[in-house]
Each structure stands twice: as structure tokens, then as C-alpha cells.
Amino acid sequence: MLDALLDPTGPDRPAVRVGADALTRDGLLEAAGRYAAALAATGPAPVAVHATATVETVAAVVGGLLAGVPVVPVPPDSGPVEREHVLRDSGAGAWVGPAELAPGLPVVAPARAAAGPAAYDPDAVALVLYTSGTTGLPKGVPHTGRGLAACLDGLADAWAWTPDDVLVHGLPVFHLHGLVLGLLGPLRVGSPLVHTVRPDPAAYASARGSVYFGVPTVWHRVARSPADAAALRSARLLVSGSAPLPVSTFEAVEALTGHAPLERYGMTETGITLATRADAVAQAGWVGTPVGPTETRVDDEGRLAVRGPSVFTGYLGRATPDLSEDGWFTTGDVAEVGPDGSHRIVGRESVDLIKTGGYRVGAGEVETVLLDHPDVEEAAVVGVPDDDLGQRIVAYVVGPGLAGRAGVDDELVALVADRLSAHKRPRRVVVVDALPRNAMGKVVKSELG
Fold this sequence. Notes:
CATH class of the largest domain: Alpha Beta
Mean pLDDT: 92
Number of strands: 23
CATH superfamily of the largest domain: ANL, N-terminal domain
Largest sheet: 9 strands, mixed
Distance between the termini: 45 Å
Shape: globular
CATH topology of the largest domain: Rossmann fold
CATH architecture of the largest domain: 3-Layer(aba) Sandwich
Radius of gyration: 22 Å
Helix content: 25-40%
Structural class: alpha/beta
Strand content: 15-25%
């Protein structure tokens, strides 16, 4: 799993920099080895890690992997109910973090002497990641070393990612994007990581990397900072994920940096299964082709299912009705497939597929148009029950100067009707101060409408 990190011929240069702190390859192995030695004494139960953006978190996560102990990253902003649920549900037997946050669990501190890696079992659970909890308490998703390696090797191929690259990002290190892609990815490939702690455009510009990861909010901020965006012209790849990238942001970033952002798609349950390749023409709104040996299928209703080595084998301690016996996971997303095999995600079937007046409308495509309006910073579109239409389309928008502005409702409705079609226009526009979000930053649409 950590082949490049464990390669004794690897260069003695910074392997990981987090803010002002840096660890060389040998320094990381030493720090992680001390955690591995301490964890060897705690037994095989998972270790939960308070996953702050620090080199200590990096060392603890890598130490768990070296020790063969499953690692459970815990978001540092978790409330007590969610944190207690994750610790209990995962069966964590040890804790790396402030003692008061995990009463009853032994706190692991680095041992005095480092230990070498334990015997590696690629089919053993390496990480237990938790879903964002949009439909209830978060669910545990076990990932094996084999599955993680398949995901990362597929992305290394798709993006021509090599040890000569320098990855830059400031994403949280407790989920798939920031932890698996953003930390384990460069450690497996052998490319240095510069973590900016926060995804600030100025920090991105000063890092001088070759590959940059960000979520749409990050790229929106980059697009609003032309001087910082111009500094990214020397990069090789800009990658966007975790949510759809608005067309206007895509175009602005491309114009300012000279790079069309590469979009990709994945879930906590599947790893990254679709990605725009570095040698392909990036298209706004399209998330690319299957990664490595991943397979996809889309049924007549547009429901996307995936199968492959990075797809999980079931939730921790729970039934998984969306996973078939032959390994197909029904994602809950609605997708389209273009002539070249590239995929476009329309939205979530449960909340983003709106059936109105006999038409099927994807909330995502309406949101994308609304976000093209210069005064709209955020948008969420939902379907609410309607006696005549079945569901009517309602748009919630955030933006300075929208509240109380005469005619803004008609303006936004007309924008959608003109860009898309009349039946896709919102029947109501609601201006709000903020959209409801969960701990992962995802909009909770169940609280709208």
C-alpha cells in the first residue's frame, strides 16, 4: 500500500509538508514507526484518529497502516453525538487525540523507538471511513489495502501522476478526497505533498506545485483572485471533485490559469470510480471515464451502478441492500453517458431527480444555470409535492444583494427557462442567508422545501 514510502532508494526530500511543518521520507517513517510500535501494544482493534491537518495526524494514520491496525479518521469538528457514534460503531480500541474527546479509550502516544512495518495483508481492513450522514447517522465503510491501492493506481494512470509531481491541497484529512487521494495518493506514488492547512488561493499560489486538488468552493475562490490564479499557470493539472463544478467557475479558472479543471466522481463507498484523464479534453460538468478496471452501468431510469476493486463489500455492521451479490453497487446517483464513454452526474435520485408534469428534471443542471448568475453564490434545487405537477421545482439561492431585490425571482426563473427549457424553470425562488450543511459541508436538502 505504501510501496513508494517504504522504498529505501526514495529521495531524502520533504515527503509531506503541512503548513510550516515538514517531514522527509525518513522522518515520516521514523514518526509513523513510533506510532506503529505503540499501536502494536494496543491490540488489533481499530485506532481512531482526531484528524486535524497536522503532521501528527499524518504520522498517526501512516503508523496505523504500518502496524496493520485499521484507522478510523474522526472529523475534528464532529459534535459529541456524532463522535461517540463513530467511536462506538467502529469498535475503536484506542484513540489518538485529546483525551477529553474520547473518554474510556486509551490515548496512544508515540513510543520511544520506532517499529518496522507489520506483515502486510492487502485484504485486511486498512481504513474505516464514515459517510457524511445526510440520511441519518454516518455509516462505516471499511476499505482494504488492495481496494485503496487499486483506486490510487488507477488515478495515477489517468492523471499521469509520477514522483516528479508535487501535489498541493488544503482539504480536510478525514475523508476520501483529502485523506485517501490527498495523503495516501502521494505517499503511494512517491510525489511530495504540500498541505496548505486551509484551501486559500494565496497559499495555493505560493506552493508552486504541479497538481492541485480542490472542491468547487476552492476553485470559485481561486477564480475571484486573478493574481493567485495566474500563479497556477505553471501547474500541470487542476483537479476538482466532491461536488459538481459550476460551468461559470470552470470557464473562469480555465481562462485565468490556462488549465481546464479535470473533474472526477467517487463516493465513500466506492473510492474514485470515474475521472477525466490528463490526455482527454475536459468538459464542464463531465466527470470522465471509469478508473482502471472499474465498470459502470446506467439503467433506463439513469441510475448509476459501479463495480470494481475499490468498491466496498458492505457497511460496517449493517445490511447493504444497494450492493448486489456480484459486486454491483447502486450509487443512488443519476447519470448520463456520452458517446465517448464520459459520464455526467445529473444528481441524487432521492432528492435531485425531480418528476414534474411528466418530465424528469435533474436538480444539478438547474443549479448549474443558477450559479452562472453573477449574484448567485450558492444554489440548491428541490422538488416539493404539488397536486397538479406531482412535484414543483423550488430553488434556494444565496448571494449578497439578492434579498429584497425587486424582480430577482423572475430574473432567475427566466434564466433557467432560456438556458434549459420552460418545464425546468423553478416555480419558486427563495433567497436565504445560508444553505443547511452537514459536517462534511454537503447541502442537506431534506431541510429545504
